Amino acid sequence: MAGPRPDERPQPTARRNAEGIRVDPDAEAARPRRTAVISALVEHEPGVLSRVSGLFSRRQFNIESLTVGPTTVEGHARITLVVEETDPGIDQAKKQLMKLTPVIAVGELGSDAVRAELVLLKVRGSEPDKVHAITEMYEGRTLDAGPRTITVQITGDERKIDDAVDAFRQFGIIEIARTGQTALERGDSPTTPGEEPGHSAATDDAAADGTSADGDATDQTTPNYDD
Amino acid sequence: MSESANPTADPADPDEADEADAADGAEPADGARTPDGAVAAAATPENGAAAVVAALESADVQTAFGVQGGAIMPVYDALYGSSIDHVTMAHEQGAAHAADAYGVVAGTPGVCLATSGPGATNLVTGIADASMDSDAMLALTGQVPSHMVGSDAFQETDTTGVTAPITKHNYFASDSTTVGDVVGEAFALAGTGRPGPTLVDLPKDVSFGETDRAPAAPTPPERSVPDPEADAESVEAAARAIERAEKPLCLFGGGVIKGNATAEARAFAREHEVPVVTTMPGIGSFPEDDELCLSWAGMHGTGYANMAISHTDCLIAVGTRFDDRLTGGVETFAPGAEVVHVDIDPAEISKNIEADYPVVGDAGTVLGQIDAAMERSPAAREWCEQCADWREEYPMDYAVDPDEPVKPQFVVEAYDAATGDDAIVTTGVGQHQMWAAQYWTYTEPRTFVSSHGLGTMGYGLPGAIGARLAAEDDREVICFDGDGSFLMTIQELSVAVRENLDITVVVLNNEYIGMVRQWQDAFFEGRHMASEYDWMPEFDKLAEAFGARGFRVDEYDEVAGVVRESLAYDGPSVVDVHVDPREDVYPMVASGGANGEFALTGDQL
Ligand SMILES: Cc1ncc(C[n+]2csc(CCOP(=O)(O)OP(=O)(O)O)c2C)c(N)n1
């Protein structure tokens, strides 16, 4: 075959980066990762959780936590995912999620969204008063107290939970269980685009008089099927 | 007919009671008795299995490929007397590939069936293959009865679990009344938007269960039906970018063919005089004998296509997912180009290559929209000349020496010359696949049927069977196979013989798994570990043993005659061509390398 050898051919000097983006001086720096909270409204059918988690593992998305629970609409569930990725990675994760047939809508939550996590901590029971003081400080609840162990529950945003876990370390943490974050968009904005909450007058009333004042995360996902 | 001696055995399951005549008086242990005590059979179509078949019929399925077995028997029984032509394959992998190729050629989803467990797992390679190539296909698998699911029952596999990552969507049927609707939905979904394989797992009790409901018309889930039109703003932006380009280049992928957009794609390129490269799955989207066509780009694409990709300033990419066999290293892929990316699947946009101008929508519709939005064609005269020069500089050729073994490229060209434009080529995977792609001049869509994304050896023969059954009788179907690839699914020759399918299998026999041998020579200092296949059977004789015609070619002067005879033979024939075992595939872009740095010989790698 004829034609110049590879090193004798005109070659372009331009480049892309590893993400396939044409390199301009600003973009050349490696993209920083950020943490994104993604909420997916899905059909509540068998296998949907494994489809979602399978998607994340096979596409190598860096998943921090995943929570799931029913919504006010019968047959729907909400999956809240926390991922740590670059911007294109987060974008890709959302699009891939949206491709799954049982996925109804996908939204990324804004930084001011309401987020909460629940943690159960079992610590040594030798200093009950001190444990109680810390529990109070973090507005937690003691769920079980015995001579050897005390188990408390703390809810709140991730930062508060991290701080609380640190504070309890002094007693010696025996066991810990964290749920991972769950989140909703603030005010009137839907958590996933186009989401139409199914609610009854009773639900509206409950919302109006501000239940869940104690911040109990489980209350936020309790389904209400009485319509 | 004898009763089963073993009262606990399921006589409907030949795997357990092979002497029982399943069609006669068999009592399915899963409780499939009709109220009057008779066993559900074809005469009483009011069961889940009959609904499955009714759904296929209402989807206008004409041909299905599969293998029988215990858990899928009710569905097969319901096929008895159906208008659907069922082709029994030798292996379920063959059924999946045949269904895949059938779908590619016919333009409607191909259908395959398998029993539970090993039947289903044998389909897996074919489903994965279809998934990687976005081929529309419906797989129906039998499953153990619902109450036994999860118990590790005989021939149980978590089929929906196994196939979740390789299907567009899969379903576990749980109700006889709705199973027909589910199958219809799965069929429709396979062909909607970006096509892909879907699967319905059918527990035996659901198939046997009574229902008198006719399945709804096959309809995809509403959410899965994409809007064909792109938004006007993105179209405008793309049109402006194309207008101002000086070195525009169209890149047509498999999506152009799958989206039936070849007419629009051809019109667009010709109207604006933009040179065209295709991807390998995009072969046939643009006629390779058109002077605008630079053939296909990528690892073994033409030098001129790869030069054009490297130097374009505006890449109009339609229906491609920027696979790494196309791009080489992403850092060097079309590095100076603004990328206009048209795709029906938003998730493909900026997945591998950042799109400067994303345009989400149906390929044909969007090309029409962009064309309408363009006020002028790009001024690309000089660029077109440059592309023509590259074509001169890097011609596709090879040396013929009558005293040497036959060059495989020569054989490909000989068959191309002897057949019409609508002939269909299928291939296995390896060097022969590349030669079939390089040295055949494709001018029509759906004429090059191959395993692209997964690269499955053994695709060629079952693919040819599927293509043959989808195509009109007067079209030629030729399978270029490698000796290694052919051996992987050679048993399907029995099917071609039984069905008397007019297929010509041309084995480019180099007694190597040649592509591996080529890489070993290039990157492993010629250590041919496990790539020498010098114990190859004589394929022409093997063909005769199967009942097909066999031909053998050792010399150049035998080629023309055998080409003529094998094409003239009205039935399956196998041509064992002993080609030059040392021949390598060039040009070649090393994995992850720059497209413009393609090697023309081994020492340029
Ligand atoms: C099922 C499968 N196994 C292994 C491979 C790896 N592989 C790619 S090409 C190739 C060699 C193919 O040999 P052959 O079919 O004889 O074709 P040739 O390259 O000699 O034309 C192999 C082993 C593959 N692609 N598919």
UniProtKB/TrEMBL annotation, chain A:
Lineage top rank: taxon: Archaea
Database matches in PROSITE patterns: ACT
Domain ACT residues, every copy: 37-111
Keywords on record: Amino-acid biosynthesis, Branched-chain amino acid biosynthesis, Transferase
Stretch list, region Disordered: 1-29, 179-227
Transmembrane segments: none
A single GO cellular-component term on record: cytosol
Cross-referenced InterPro entries: Acetalactate_synth_ssu, Acetolactate_synth/TF_NikR_C, Acetolactate_synth_ssu_C, ACT-like_dom_sf, ACT_dom, AHAS_ACT, AHAS_small-like_ACT
NCBIfam families: acolac_sm, PRK11895.1
Protein name: Acetolactate synthase small subunit
Species this chain originates from: Halorarum salinum
From TrEMBL, chain B:
Region Disordered: start-end pairs: 1-36, 194-234
Upper taxonomic lineage: Archaea, Methanobacteriati, Methanobacteriota, Stenosarchaea group, Halobacteria
Transmembrane spans: none
One of the GO BP terms on file: L-valine biosynthetic process
Low complexity biased stretches: 25-36
Segments forming domain Thiamine pyrophosphate enzyme central: 235-369
Family annotation (NCBIfam families): acolac_lg (TIGR00118)
EC number: 2.2.1.6
Keywords carried by this UniProt record: Amino-acid biosynthesis, Branched-chain amino acid biosynthesis, Magnesium, Metal-binding, Thiamine pyrophosphate, Transferase
Protein name in UniProt: Acetolactate synthase
Similarity-based family: Belongs to the TPP enzyme family.
Species of provenance: Halorarum salinum
UniProt entry tagged with the keyword Ligase: no
Cofactor: thiamine diphosphate; Mg(2+)
PANTHER family: ACETOLACTATE SYNTHASE CATALYTIC SUBUNIT, MITOCHONDRIAL, THIAMINE PYROPHOSPHATE ENZYMES
UniProt GO cellular component terms: acetolactate synthase complex
GO molecular function: acetolactate synthase activity; flavin adenine dinucleotide binding; magnesium ion binding; thiamine pyrophosphate binding
Catalytic activity: 2 pyruvate + H(+) = (2S)-2-acetolactate + CO2
Note accompanying the cofactor annotation: Binds 1 thiamine pyrophosphate per subunit. Binds 1 Mg(2+) ion per subunit.
SUPFAM superfamilies, A to Z: DHS-like NAD/FAD-binding domain (SSF52467), Thiamin diphosphate-binding fold (THDP-binding) (SSF52518)
Thiamine pyrophosphate enzyme N-terminal TPP-binding domain: residues covered: 47-160
Pathway(s) annotated for this protein in UniProt: Amino-acid biosynthesis; L-valine biosynthesis; L-valine from pyruvate: step 1/4; Amino-acid biosynthesis; L-isoleucine biosynthesis; L-isoleucine from 2-oxobutanoate: step 1/4
Domain Thiamine pyrophosphate enzyme TPP-binding: 428-577
Compositionally skewed regions (Acidic residues) per UniProt: 12-24
Pfam families referenced in this protein's UniProt entry, alphabetically: TPP_enzyme_C (PF02775), TPP_enzyme_M (PF00205), TPP_enzyme_N (PF02776)
